[in-house]
Amino acid sequence: MPHSHQPVIKPHATPGFSTEIWREIVLWLPPRDWKSLLQVPHVLGRIASELLFQRIDLHLASEKRESQRSADILTRIITDGDFASHVKTLRVFVPGRETFPITFQTGMLSNALPKLTNLRNVHCSMRWKDMYSVLRVLETISHRLTGLSLMPSDGTGELRFPRFKHIMQFSYHSTGGATTQVYDFLVQNKSSIRYLSLHNPNWSFPTEAVSIRHLTTLDFQGTFPADSRAFAEILSNGHQLESLRLECILECTASKQFREFATALPFLHHFAFSLMGYRVNDHDLFPAIAEFLKGRTALRSLQLIVPSADWALKRLGYDATVWGVLPSLTSLKALTATLPKDVAAAVAMWLVPRGVHALSLQALTPVNTIEFVSQLRAGLPPPLTYIGLSQFHVEDATAVIEQGFPMVRIARIDDDYYTVARVNGKIKLDEWPKGRTQYNAREWLACYGCEEAEWRDPTQFL
């Protein structure tokens, strides 16, 4: 009697996969699609909920809708232990330098924190006094925290840091305050920190407080005084660095240090060097950086920014030599740069590696923007999907994109982001809402394959 072959999956029936297999299927979807699965009456909906709420954003003292949403989430955490157990990352934002008290909100937060039994990463952006209250609670309940990101909005207070000793990712961005507490905390976690983001324009690099040889990511903004050997320390000891970003107020002669370690950092994939200001004449600086970058075929993203191409040419050697090294960076996917004064715009684009899909340009002296972008168009890399324009005079964003970059999917003009579409043969720009760009821009860029267009924000934990 012949065997009857029954189909493995019956028509119009849901496959009987295990929860683990369904989870793997959901993980293949982009996060923006998980929200749609919440409405599905199936194990998929529960999995999507668990994944979505692994990271929670709270916006305290914001506009009414966001404040109510945050209060509802805190209530859910306090009353639903299963929901709370899925939260691994918590980001808390209090906008600006609000002076009115948020005692009620921080009180709810203090009650919710002990419920987050699997919390691993915390970001706080608020006044330092409110931040102090949150950190004090964290210290008493979470000894397994591995990521901490702090951005005091008033920037001048003296925080008392918790006694954590196993932090792997740490970021601290401020505009004032003393270094003592921060540096003590760095020493406390010296052996465990792998990712460090430290921004304060008044501070020097904390060479003694950091184990550079342990770092895979270093993002530092600050001052390099006249006697600084910080560049040499970073280059000679940063053997494991994959990502290095330096935003400098430069007072030392850095070119000699780059020349001395021209072949350092063998695993470097992302490099950024930006000048916020300088009080030195170092004509070999950018030729030395160009030599340091030359032939790095593993480099995926590069940023080179100067405050004035004209003065940088005269005082720091920011000339065609820098742009001439680009063709040797064969794996480059994202480039952000100020065009050198002595390179014609049309020629400059032909030197950009052909694999670049995200390009951001900073304006030189005032130019006719439409005419300028028209010159760029012929030499643009074929896979370009993202264009960023900074400090350009743009009266009609649609006309600029139509004339220079009709092939891109995303455009950024200063702080405004746009999705680019072609409707009936014409370019149409849809501006992104500010909430998306302020807190989640890189995640949305990832949806369009452009995540490397911008540096990873320290609030986006690994």
Question: Can you describe this structure?
Answer:
This protein is α/β, with parallel strands linked by helices and 462 residues long. The protein has 4 domains: 17-52; 55-76 and 86-193, no CATH class; 232-338; 344-453, no CATH class. It contains 18 helices and 16 strands. It has helices at residues 19-27, 31-37, 43-52, 64-79, 81-85, 103-112, 128-141, 180-188, 230-237, 255-260, 285-293, 309-316, 320-324, 345-351, 369-376, 397-404, 434-439, 441-447; strands spanning 55-59, 89-93, 121-126, 147-152, 169-173, 195-204, 217-224, 243-250, 270-278, 301-305, 334-338, 358-362, 386-390, 410-413, 416-423, 426-431. Strands 1-2-3-4-5-6-7-8-9-10-11-12-13-14-15-16 form a 16-stranded mixed beta sheet. Strand 5 (169-173), helix 8 (180-188) and strand 6 form a beta-alpha-beta unit. Helix 6 (103-112) packs parallel to helix 7 (128-141) and helix 15 (369-376) packs parallel to helix 16 (397-404). The chain is globular and about 65 Å long. The termini are far apart. The mean pLDDT is 87.
